[in-house]
């Protein structure tokens, strides 16, 4: 297996998975970003070539330089054969078990059970095993002018994309839509339930600088509602300031991001903490549908990670480093 493990032309993997992206949506979104400039510095690995039964994405060594940073040291896995999955995840060249990391498994795949067996045999601390519902926005209807959209444009024209009416909402008077600025990173960290550590600020800056984002700014230029996109092309860290909830602000924010993602050919999806029913209801009203199956997120941290001061995984009631917190029901 070591001889077969390799990086590969991501365009070929992307084409192979494009036929059924819902069953592999996180790997699919990651590979799309790798194929479009690779802003997060990720690698795509397969078990064999040219025919493959498993795809794994992981950060390059230059990116995963901090052995305690499980935010940046992010892996995704999708497989078609259980034995192949076990072999690839157990390969020391695939995952560095001396580092803290997280791995995200696909819906309709029982990969979490196999991964837990591997964790048990190697005995590092498994800090988190969390099932999360995943929601996806149905593909939009394109207007005749959509042929003019440049799929590689950083800011495609939202008017060319027809979304559910719930997302077609203009900001209230005095508010304006804009990308999130790096100057907002501290506000985002301070309002994030996983933000009480240095890793989260570094991670949020990565997302703000290299991936699409949207926020509503008040007349003073302060964000009051926002959402980011992560390296897996998922909506993440959706949040509305408490004093501005109940005013349907996520409609405009999610609508702006959905238009950009769909115009570039990306799926629009997110995941929610399992008991966060207000967020589930909000997203469903915006046109999202819950995918069948369960998406799993696992975090592994060797003992030296405990040297960090009280962090999100130690203090949060519902830890999920990449899931963020969607705005409360509007």
How does this model look, in words?
The structure is a single chain. This protein is of the alpha+beta class and 330 residues long. It is built from nine helices and 16 strands. The chain has two domains: 6-134; 135-291, Aminopeptidase. It is 26% helix and 22% strand. A hairpin with a 5-residue loop joins strand 11 and strand 12 (223-229). Helix 1 packs antiparallel against helix 2 and helix 3 (82-89) packs parallel to helix 4 (111-122). Mean pLDDT is 74; it is low at 1-14, 140-161 and 304-330.
SSE arrangement:
Layout: E1 6-7, H1 10-18, H2 25-35, E2 42-46, E3 54-59, E4 74-79, H3 82-89, E5 101-105, H4 111-122, E6 126-132, E7 134-137, E8 141-142, E9 161-162, E10 176-178, H5 185-190, H6 198-210, E11 213-217, E12 223-229, E13 235-240, H7 249-263, E14 268-271, H8 277-285, E15 288-290, E16 295-300, H9 312-315
Parallel strand pairs: 4-5
Antiparallel strand pairs: 1-2, 2-3, 3-4, 5-16, 6-16, 7-14, 7-15, 8-9, 10-11, 11-12, 12-13
Helix pairs in contact: 1-2, 3-4
């Amino acid at each position: 297996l070591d001889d077969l493990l390799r990086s590969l032309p991501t365009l070929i993997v992307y084409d192979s998975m494009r036929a059924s992206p819902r069953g592999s949506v996180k790997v699919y979104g990651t590979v799309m970003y790798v194929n479009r400039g690779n802003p997060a510095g990720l690698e795509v690995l397969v078990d064999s070539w040219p025919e493959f039964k498993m795809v794994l994405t992981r950060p390059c060594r230059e990116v995963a330089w901090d052995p305690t940073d499980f935010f940046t040291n992010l892996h995704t896995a999708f497989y078609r054969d259980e034995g192949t999955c076990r072999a690839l995840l157990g390969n020391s060249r695939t995952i560095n078990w001396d580092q803290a990391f997280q791995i995200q498994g696909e819906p309709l795949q029982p990969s979490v059970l196999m991964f837990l067996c591997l964790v048990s045999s190697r005995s590092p601390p498994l800090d988190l095993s969390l099932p999360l519902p995943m929601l996806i926005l149905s593909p939009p209807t394109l207007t005749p002018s959509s042929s003019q959209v440049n799929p590689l444009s950083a800011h495609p024209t939202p008017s060319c994309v027809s979304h559910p009416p719930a997302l077609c909402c203009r900001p209230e008077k005095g508010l304006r839509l804009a990308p999130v600025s790096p100057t907002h990173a501290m506000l985002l960290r301070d309002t994030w339930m996983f933000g009480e550590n240095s890793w989260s600020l570094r991670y949020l800056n990565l997302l703000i600088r290299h991936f699409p984002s949207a926020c509503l700014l008040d007349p003073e230029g302060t964000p009051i509602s926002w959402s980011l996109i992560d390296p897996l092309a998922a909506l993440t860290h959706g949040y509305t300031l408490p004093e501005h909830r109940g005013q349907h602000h996520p409609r405009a924010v999610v609508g702006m991001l959905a238009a950009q993602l769909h115009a570039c050919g990306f799926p629009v999806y997110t995941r929610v903490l399992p008991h966060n029913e207000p967020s589930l209801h909000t997203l469903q009203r915006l046109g999202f549908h819950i995918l069948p199956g369960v998406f799993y997120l696992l975090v592994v941290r060797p003992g030296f990670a405990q040297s960090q001061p009280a962090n999100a995984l130690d203090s949060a009631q519902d830890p999920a480093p990449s899931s963020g917190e969607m705005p409360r029901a509007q």
